[in-house]
Amino acid sequence: MIRLFLAALLFSLWPLTTAVAGEKFVVLLDWFTNPDHAPLYVAQGLGYFTDAGLDVELIAPADPNDPPKLVAAGQADIAISYQPQLHVQVAEGLPLVRVGTLVATPLNSLVVMADGPIQSIADLKGKTVGFSVGGFEDALLRAMLARYGLTLDDITLVNVNFSLSPALITGRVDAVIGAFRNFELNQMDIVGKPGRAFYVEEEGVPVYDELIFIAHRDRLDDPRLRAFIDAIEAATLYLVNHPDAAWKLFIEGRAELDDDLNRRAWRDTLPRFALRPAAYDAARYERFAEFLKDQGLIEEALPAEAYGVELR
Amino acid sequence: MSQLDASSSASLSAHISGATLGFAGRALFDGLDMTLEAGRWTCLLGPTGVGKTSLLRLFAGLAAADGNRVVTCGDGEPIAGRVAYMAQQDLLMPWLTVIENVVIGSRLRGARPAYERARELLDSVGLADRADDYPRVLSGGMRQRTALIRTLMEDRPIVLMDEPFSALDAITRLRLQSLAAELLRGRTVLLVTHDPLEALRLGDRIHVMAGSPARLDEAMTPAGATPRDPADRALLVLQAELLARLAAADGGEG
Amino acid sequence: MSLLRPLIVCAGLVGLWQLLVWWSGVPPYLLPGPGLVIAAWFTHAGLIAGHALVTIAEILIGLALGTALGAASALCLAYFRTVRPWLMPLLVISQAIPVFALAPLLVLWFGYGMASKVAMAVLIIFFPVTASFFDGLRRTDPGWLDLGRTMNGTALTILRRIRLPAALPAFASGLRVATAVAPIGAVVGEWVGSSAGLGYLMLHANGRMQIDLMFAALLTLSLFAVALYFTIDAGLRRALRWQADT
Lengths: 312, 254, 246
Hints:
The structure holds 3 protein chains of 3 kinds.
Chain A: H1 2-21, E1 24-28, H2 38-46, H3 48-51, E2 55-59, H4 66-72, E3 78-81, H5 83-91, E4 96-103, E5 108-113, E6 128-131, H6 137-146, E7 156-159, H7 164-169, E8 175-180, H8 184-190, E9 195-199, E10 211-216, H9 223-241, H10 243-251, H11 260-269, H12 282-294
Parallel strand pairs in A: 1-2, 1-3, 6-7, 6-8
Antiparallel strand pairs in A: 3-10, 4-10, 5-8, 5-9
Helix pairs in contact in A: 2-9, 2-10, 9-10
Chain B: E1 14-23, E2 26-36, E3 41-45, H1 52-60, E4 72-73, E5 83-86, H2 98-102, H3 104-108, H4 115-124, H5 140-154, E6 158-162, H6 170-183, E7 188-192, H7 196-202, E8 205-210, E9 215-216, H8 233-253
Parallel strand pairs in B: 3-7, 3-8, 5-6, 6-7
Antiparallel strand pairs in B: 1-2, 1-4, 8-9
Helix pairs in contact in B: 4-5, 5-6, 7-8
Chain C: H1 4-24, H2 34-43, H3 45-79, H4 84-96, H5 99-110, H6 114-138, H7 142-150, H8 155-192, H9 198-207, H10 211-239
């Protein structure tokens, strides 16, 4: 089993060994290419990276848990990750820091069947909730349930490992947490089994950035980082100004992404991209750290500099 | 030396007539008749592949002749269930101890094994202290002796033996021949063998099987009680004649 | 049985592990050293034990069920020739399809409880057990079968007294393989969908960057798998003590 793990890790490192040796700027996505990554592909398509002198390589991992480890190990320059996980990673001693924001709102939501019996969070009592392994669903759920006087003991948590929609649709679970409102909801809609979403930030969880750019704490003086974020900023503006043209750039050379689901997700994600990706809201991060500490996920809520920086 | 008294089971003759058997497109034998005289040893010799083993298997009920000819016994009943079989390999089952191997027949029939008698028999051939050993630690001679005891244990009137001693060295072979002659005295025995001397030591009637389709020649009937002395001059004369018959059988068709 | 040598081997492996960590300078969130893992083991002993019991149950039940199913299939194949062209392809397919592809389906059909993990384990060991046992049954020495028939053995007594013991060595080989891979089935099942077990714990720990806990769970699983194998092996060797060791 250790062999499997190490082999998988080495396998994912393979393309990076050449990348680090050369001038490549290696960017690890958080998941397979999807509309959450629009600014990156727009920037790539418009040549913003090359204009900034960056030879960017975008890599999609098989396991979303790997990119932070790989950046921490110096095997990649920048990765897309999640703010909540960043707090936990910093607490575990990984030398990571947020250098930019991609999606400035939460995307996580608790989803139930629209025609199902669950009308409010209170109805979750005695029910089964599926999650993929984000490592902090408990914290979200605990906070959401607490507002209705419920605890985690009132529900059954089941790891469905990213198979969220099928688990919900087949009735194997009564609700899922960790579903992205721009994705799973559309997925369910398309197969004719619409869902109802409870947005976490409306149910007692402080607002946070769902997708962020993280880099190694000791590499912050790399000028390419700010150049990268600037290119993202320019691409995001293009997205806002020319959404249709931007879509064409997204699917150029990636015809397999030109389907109903991605088109709907694109439309729902557009308003959520950070218009000022480099800007760092320190108070917001400290507030979320406090929240995680209250939920017992981290021992200490560190000051904002421990979690993120605003690159110059 | 104790032996199973043959008088407890009356001697039985066995007979097959008009046996026809084909093998790989050619007829092994066609309309063959053979009788095993009650209480006597019948030996069968012949070139390899002539069909001796097939004929023995017919008697054993392990093969069926074409036309469903059945082997009948002297009392008119079929032969099924009245034979004990001994092959060239000792067929001892490696997962059973010696004594368990000896009583395997009862177990297969769902009957209670007679361990007392089994131990007596083993003792009579000097294997009493090996009763609880596994076959793998025994010598070839010991193993075939065990097989002989197993055969005896079956207590059947008809015993069919297919070259049981050919895998043993000369001295062990002679010893086991004598042993078999003693232990199986009074039973109806069919012995298939390659060794003319063995046939002459043990056989009351000796046939050479030859030809394609095979036929039995006229029986040679040596005089004297078995086991006969290999040094006996008369025996050596008969052996020469037997060898001549065998050579003719082989050279003729080969 | 002497435990000294296996213990020395284990100690050697642990030493090598520590050396690897020191020499490569790999950070603890990728590969923690044995000290950290053992510390995590003691810290979370209760948690690990609870999940371990679940996985152990899955493995044992899966092994028992899979072996029974495999044995029954082998007997069918041996005795009913007409079944062979139907059953053999199924057998091969069960082996050829990567379990990762089947796991989500099994979880969907059997739910997130133990049943799907047991089903995974059964699926993984079905082929080794059936194939080896069938092979053994097929190759019964015809001499013994001849002897059995002349002794008036019935089909049942011949099966029980001759074919089964004769096929036992082949069956034992299959069972050994099954014992070694059954844990994989259980854990893969847990990775795909579960609420308890060492596989579940490993995923959870990984998600929270508690890599030392993840390795502690992994270590526990490995220890159990090894202990299970040696236990079954000892049992088989005892049952086959009549065999010569060439």
